[in-house]
Structure formats: structure tokens, C-alpha cells
Amino acid sequence: MYDPTIKTFITVADCGSFTSAASKLYISPTAVMKQINTLESRMSLTLLSRKSSGVELTKAGKVIYLASKDIIERCENAIQQARKEEEKYNKTFCVGTSLLNPAKPLMDLWYLLNDRFPGYKLHLVPFDDNNSDIVSVIDSLGEKFDFLVGACNSKTWMSKCNTLEIGNCRFTVAVSRTHRLARKTSVSIADLEGETVMMVKQGDSSNNDKLRKELISHGNITVTDMPIFYDMTVFNRCAETDNVLISLDCWHDIHPELAAIPLEFDFSIPLVIMYSKNAPDDIKKFISAAEETVKNA
Prior knowledge:
This protein is α/β, with parallel strands linked by helices. It folds into two domains: 4-89, Arc Repressor Mutant, subunit A; 93-289, D-Maltodextrin-Binding Protein, domain 2 (3-Layer(aba) Sandwich). Helix content is 42%, strand content 23%. It has helices at 4-15, 18-25, 29-43, 59-90, 104-113, 134-139, 155-158, 206-217, 232-240, 281-296, and strands at 48-51, 54-57, 92-97, 121-126, 148-151, 162-176, 196-200, 222-226, 244-248, 258-262, 268-275. Strands 5, 6, 7, 8, 9, 10 and 11 form a seven-stranded mixed β-sheet that branches. Strands 1-2 form a two-stranded antiparallel sheet. Strands 3-4 form a two-stranded parallel sheet. Helix 1 (4-15) packs across helix 2, helix 1 (4-15) packs across helix 3 (29-43) and helix 1 (4-15) packs across helix 4 (59-90). The model has no long low-confidence stretch (mean pLDDT 91).
């Protein structure tokens, strides 16, 4: 942060000779003299009075000496403070959170595990649920985010990160509150006869594909493709039509105009913690602790 020649100058002034300073700095007396000569030339000042017995500060040298000591002290204090701030940041887990992918499941785990991570804190980083940008959010793992949490059986997502399964989200149907199914406590395949069912398009999620196959095999059900990744536009579209949306129980209150009803058949999507494939050791340690806690739950 400062010219190292300044430190040489201070050492010479403190030692009283080029030879003593050279010994302290582990360089030759000639190198010390060259540095001081260069410094004086650059400042157009004589900083040291050379004598056969050694050197001493000139009046100008005394001014520069005091100012230089202050500069070095300030710089070293700033470096120490910066290191403390960096340590604080390095002891922070950044967790992405959004309306459809909230951080709460990870936070619930954190409160069971945080005694194993003294000094660490969670920092929530909000992001938007935009189906066109969500892949870039996953790509930010290891940079902007340490962890993301979500219902994930997506080949696209899982190819870009490591995951730890911590639970599952059951499939439900979402319908407008005026829909004929809205008052039911559960929905069967037979209940969906004659309906247009909106769901994730085929090919990216094996669990969604199995459910799609089940729906199509039962006759008069029209399946309409939705984006691979839902955002609020999908839920708005459901609320504005008389269609049925395949949703998840973790999104049961995501839209105030929709009713969420459990399906009577057993289909679900894993709920996972996502983290970088190149995660540092503290991230791996947390994942290992979380895995142990989930297994013992």
C-alpha cells in the first residue's frame, strides 16, 4: 500500500547507518544507499546527512520521517481491519432465497447445526423466480450463493451443482377458488377427467414425466406444457383460466386466488440443498453435518 523505499528510509534513520540498516533488512549496504538516493531524488529533498560516523535526519528528513511512520501505521492498521472483515465474510454462508425457493428448510437445519460452526452466520441473498434466468442463479453457486434450496428433479439443475436431499415435496393440483375441484380434500385421476392439466413439459424431470404418463394413460385428460421452471406467471395463468395446474405442497399458499389440493396418488419431487461442485471445505463440512442430521431425524 506504500512505497517500500519509505520503510528502508525509516530503518536507516532508526539504525543511524546504512550498514546497520542493511543488516536488519537483509540486503547489501549498497542496495540501501541506492534506495535512499532514489527516494531523495524523487522527492527533490535531502533527507539524511551523511557523516563518517553514520547518518542523521535533516530537518526535511525529520518531517518525512514522522509522516512516513504515520502512513505505515495507518496502512498496517487498515490491512489488519481488512483481514478481519475478510474473515467475517469467509465465515458467512450466503443462502439464496425466493418466493418459490425459500431458504427456510436450510435455516431450520442451521439452527440444529450452528454450534458446530462457531463464528459463522447465515446471510440471505434474495433472487427472482424468473424461468428464463433461473439457470444463471444455479450457475452463481460458489460465487453469489453458497447454498440454494428447492424442489429439484431437474436434469438441467442437477448437471450444474451437487445436491443433498433433505425431504420431499408431494405433487398437488392448484385450481382457481371458483373451480369445481376447489372444495375437494383430495383429487383422484378420475376427478381430472375432462380437465386441461398444465404441467412441466416433458424431458427434464423424470418424476414429472412419470406423473404425465400416468395422467395421459387414464383417458380424457388434456396435458398442456408449461416451462421447465415455474415462476409466478405460471400461477397467474392458472388463476386466470379454468385449468388445473400440477403444483407442489411446498407451494400451497403461493397464490391467494388458488386452492391447493393433494393428489391421491403418491408422486413427489425431492427437496434438496444445492451447492457448488467446487465447494470449499466449510461448505462440505456443513453438507456432511446436514446429511447426518437428516438421516437421524
